[in-house]
Amino acid sequence: MDLSLIIMQLLSGIALGAVLVITALGLTIVFGMLGVVNFAHGALFMIGAYAGLYLASLTGSFWWGLLLAPILIGAFGMLIEFVLIRRLYGRSIDDPLLLTFGLSYVLVEGVRIVFGSDGIPFPTPPQLIGVLDLGIGFFPRYRLFVIALVAVVLLVLWLTLEKTRVGLIVRAGARDPTIMQVLGVDIGRVWLAIFGLGVGLAALGGVLAGPMRSVNPEMGALVLAEAFVVTVIGGLGSIVGAVVAGLMVGISISMVALFAPEMATIVMFALMAVVLLIRPQGLFGVRGRTA
Amino acid sequence: MTSLSSCEAVAEPSPGGLGWLLEQRVLLSIAVLAVLPWLLPSQALAVNVLIYGVVVMGYNLLFGYTGLLSFGQAAFFGAGAYFTGIAIGRYGVPWFAAVPIAVGLSTCLAAAIGIVSTRTRGIYFSMVTLALAQLVYYVALQASSFTGGENGLRGFTVDRISLFGLPVNFLDPVNKYYVLMVFAALAMWFQSRILNSPFGAVIEAIRENEQRARACGYDVERSKLIVFMLSGAISSLGGCMLALHLSIVPLDILHYQTSGMIVMMVLLGGARSFFGPFVGAASFLILEDVISLWTPHWQIFVGAIFVLFVLFLPKGIWGTLADVVGIGKARQ
Hints:
The structure holds two protein chains of two kinds.
Chain A: H1 3-34, H2 41-59, H3 62-83, H4 94-115, E1 131-133, E2 138-140, H5 141-163, H6 165-175, H7 177-182, H8 187-209, H9 219-234, H10 239-259, H11 264-278
Antiparallel strand pairs in A: 1-2
Helix pairs in contact in A: 1-5, 1-8, 1-9, 1-10, 2-3, 2-4, 2-8, 2-9, 3-8, 5-6, 9-10, 9-11, 10-11
Chain B: H1 18-23, H2 25-39, H3 43-65, H4 74-89, H5 95-117, H6 122-142, H7 144-147, E1 160-163, E2 166-169, H8 173-196, H9 198-208, H10 210-215, H11 220-246, H12 256-269, H13 276-294, H14 298-312, H15 316-325
Antiparallel strand pairs in B: 1-2
Helix pairs in contact in B: 2-3, 2-8, 3-8, 3-11, 3-12, 3-13, 4-5, 4-11, 5-6, 5-11, 8-9, 8-11, 9-11, 12-13, 12-15, 13-14
């Protein structure tokens, strides 16, 4: 097997991992702040893909879909937090999880009613069709774009969290919400915004994944399991963990697909089991809350 | 709940009156199940209530009594069904031997998944069980020479069985129902024994306060693993019943939607109670049956109803009823 093929496969893995990172990041940020694991995350990813597709066909441009779908679905996420999840703070930690699970049923069936049960092809934007010659091989332009865009989003998120006042409030709120309330911060509003951000990231992942996977109402189930695997490996609540584990899982899937294709879907779960046996709290997780 | 001021795990004293009647919970359940085919609109529905009732009952041991919210129970439900089908169809094992073999193998699977997942707590446990159950799903999908892959497992029809030398036509729905009911009765007796045992008190102590149970000297990790395996064993028996009933095993049985359905059923009926799982399975299946008469999109209603239950009736139908009448408290 020659080296250039392995490098190309590595790049594919990074592109795959980039979508996983964005999706898992939404999950992990919401957990880190609100202590809620959103079981509807996969369904919202799927809705993001449909929304992107719909908006792209409505406006005639993929780029509007890419921009508007995460914002709209993020706003929808805020509505979910405000109407449903807010009622469950202070109750058992299982309750938000159960509620979002029930919600995912409603969302998936809702999409089936509106768009039908069959998959819909998501066309690659015309500017990104085709492959680019990297010197050692040809690589799809769209996948390079996905890698670059995710890198930019990560950078913006990191700068916001570390360098701005809003980021300071968010980080402090994750550490100790009670003290933040004492200091006069409306923590409810912070939670609302964070939940919206998490859902928006799921939707962004959905739009980005659209041209790489087929868009169908069931796509969220696999994504949810993948996002869980990534957050468990990285450590729930850890942003660095989500990034490292997302890339790790993407690259593992892609590399295993090269040598043993039938093992590709299985490898990430095996990876998770190994990490759990060695380090139950995940690679970057904090011991105590979860393990 | 056993008094927590004491660390001694003991069974509770029997209450009198209506409580006494509920004390005979296994016999009471069998009596209701015996007439169920005539209470429900169709025989098929009754068989499904029986099967899912057993699966959900096993799950309740884990979720209701130990407080571990697993999202991977489909793995054991499916394993029971697949192992039964493979034993009968591929290796020619007689059906009555296939069932204990399948339950035994499924319990081994539960041990393997349990060793990894019981190392985690809280929400992590839910995520890890979901992921590991999905692993089982993909293994079954890939190992198509054994499992039939996407088409499901076929070719092990049990049409005629012999009960103590008496030939029974197993294709007759009524005969089938009562044969399967024997398995359900055994499972209920087993579950009732577990709950009445000191071990049953220990798992409830873990649910109420893990730290305290550990401080009392109970091996929390080992108890969790054991309850995980017992729960998997009972749910896998439901899988065996499904395989005998359908004569095919659909791949979807292993999907996480099935795990989710089990969670929904236990919550609708009422976790932490002996009757809750059967009430939940029956309500869910009747709801599905009725709604799908006028729309194929029954899931949207079931999902919405479930959300309302989480918000307003977290104790489920049976738990709420028991609270209103004022009986269930002693046994919950």
